[in-house]
Amino acid sequence: MKNIFKITLLSSTLLALVGCSEDFLEKEPSEFLTQEQVSEAGETNADVLAGTLTGIYSLQFEDGSGGTTNHDDFGQKGYDIFGDMLSGDVALSVSSFGWYRSGITEFQAPLDFTNQRNYMPWRYYYRLVRSANLVIAAVGGNDAIPETDENKYILGQAKAMRAHSYFYLAQYYQNSYNPSQEILPIYLLPEDENGPKVAASVIYEQMESDLNSAISLLDGFNRSAKNQINKQVAQGILAYVLAAQGDRWQEVKDLTDDIIANSPFTIMTEEEVARADRTDDDVNNPTGGGFNDVNTPGWMWGVDLTTDSGVGLLSWWGQMDYFSYSYAGYGDYKAIDADLFAQIPANDVRKNQFLNNPESSNHLQPWGKFFDPQRVPRGPSQVITLDLVYMRIAEMYLLNAEAAANLDMDAEARMALSTLLAERLDDTSYLDGLSGQDLLDEIYLQTRIELWGEGKSYLAMKRNKATVVRGANHLSFVGDPIPYNAEELTFEIPEEEILYNPAINTQNE
C-alpha cells in the first residue's frame, strides 16, 4: 500500500495531458497520449487503466492541481477549507501571510469572477472530469458493461469520481438547488469541449446515473487501499447528491441504512476522536487519538500519505496543523468558530479537539483533532505519518438522522443521532425531548461539531438553508448574518472559462 502513489509514466502523462494549456477543456495536444492510445493499451493491459486511475486519485492531493502556484491550491482538501471558511465554522483567527483572508474569508473571490479562487475549483474538478472521461471511454464508454471484474471496478470508480466532481461544482457554483437554472457545462466524452451551461437537473440526473451504475459495477470490489472508491463510498456520495435536492429524503435514508448495516466501518470511539485532556502544556506528551491515520476504522475513504506522495508545506496539513512546518504553525491560524465551540458541552469529548486557552494566540486551534503524532511545534515539513480523510461512517449516521427527521420519523432520527453521540457524551437522554424543527436543528449542530474541519459544513449549511453568523474570533464580518444562498458564499464561473469557451461567452451576453 505504501507504494500505491508512485504514479506511472502513463499517469503522469495523463495529468499533463488534461492540465497543460490555458484552455483546460481543449482537445489533447498531439505530443501526449491520446484516448485511442490509452484504449488500445487498456485492451491488452488492465494495469494501464489502473495506473491512469491511480493518477486521478493522486490529483486529489496534488499541489497546483487547480492551475495556480498558490499555497492554497492542493486538491480536494483545499476546497474543503474554502467551504468550511465560507460556512463560517472555520475561523481565520490570525493572518500573518494572508492566505484565505481576502479571497475567501472576506468574500472577494465569490463576488469577483476574475479572482483566481473562482478559477481554482473550476479547473480542478473539470480536470478530474476530463480524466475520468478518458478512463470511461477506454473501458468501453458510458454505457459499457465490461466483461472482466477488473475493468468493471475501474469503470465504477471512474464514474463515481466524475459524479463526485460534478457534485462539488454544483455545490460551489449554484447559490441554492434550482433544477431549472442553467449552471455548468457537462462533458461526458474525452472529445467534449466548450459546452454551454445546462440546467442543474441535467447535472444531477447525470450524477445519479453515474453513481447508480458505479454502485452496481463496484459490487464485490475489495479495494487494496482506502483511497479507492468502493461500493459504500459510492453510496455515500449518492446520499449527498440526493440530500442536496431537498426532497429525496426516503432515498437518502434507505442508502444510509444500507451503508450502516452492511459496511465494516465503525464510529470513531472516544479515544480515537480526540486527544485526551487537550491543554497548552502537554505538547510533548502524546496520548493518542486524533485524525491522522487512514487505518482508523471509522474512515470510509481517505488517502495514506507517504514519502512517495511528495506532500509537504503546500498541503492541507500545512494549512491546518500547528505541528506541521507550515502556515498553521507560523501565524495563519485556523480555529473553530468561537460561538460553535461554546455550544459544545464541557463533558463532550470533542471539546478536547481544540486548544482552549483564551490567553493564547492559538486559542481554539485543532490541537487535539488534527496533529502530527510527534507533536513537535512547527515540526516536519514533509508529510509522512499523516493521512487525509474524505468520508467517515459518522457522516452516514448524521445523514440518516437528518433524512429521518425530514420524514417526520423522529424516533428513528433520535436513535441514529444517539448512536453517534453515545461515543461523545455520557448522557444523551436530552434527545428524547426533541422533535420537529428542534430535532433538525440539533442534527445540524451535531453535524457541524462532529465534522468540523472535514469539509462538510458548507454542504450542511446549504441543505439546512442556514444563515451564517460568525463568532468573535473571525477577522471580518463578525456578527453579520449571511444566508446560505448569498452571493458571498457562492463562486462565479471564472473569467478564464468565459474567455475561452464561446458557448459560455454567448450565454452570458
Helix vs. strand class: mainly alpha
Number of discrete helical segments: 20
Radius of gyration: 22 Å
What is the H-and-E element order?
A: HHHHEHHHHEEHHHHEHEHEHHHHEEHH
- Strand line-up of the largest beta sheet: 1-5
Mean pLDDT: 89
Please outline the major beta sheet.
2 strands, antiparallel
Strand count: 8
Organism: Salegentibacter maritimus
Pfam families: SusD-like_3 (PF14322), SusD_RagB (PF07980)
Keywords: Cell outer membrane, Membrane, Signal
Subcellular location: Cell outer membrane
Q: What keywords describe this structure?
A:
509 residues; two-stranded antiparallel ribbon; 20 helices; globular; disordered N terminus
Can you characterise this structure?
The protein is mainly alpha-helical and 509 residues long. Helix content is 44%, strand content 6%. It has 20 helices and 8 strands. It has helices spanning 9-19, 35-44, 46-59, 76-87, 101-105, 108-111, 116-139, 149-173, 200-217, 231-243, 249-262, 270-273, 316-320, 338-342, 393-406, 410-421, 436-450, 457-463, 495-500, 502-507; strands at 90-95, 182-184, 198-199, 299-303, 332-336, 388-392, 467-469, 481-483. The strands form 4 sheets. The chain has a two-stranded antiparallel sheet with strand order 1-5. The protein has a two-stranded antiparallel sheet with strand order 2-3. A two-stranded antiparallel ribbon has the order 4-6. The radius of gyration is 22 Å and the shape is globular. Its main location: membrane.
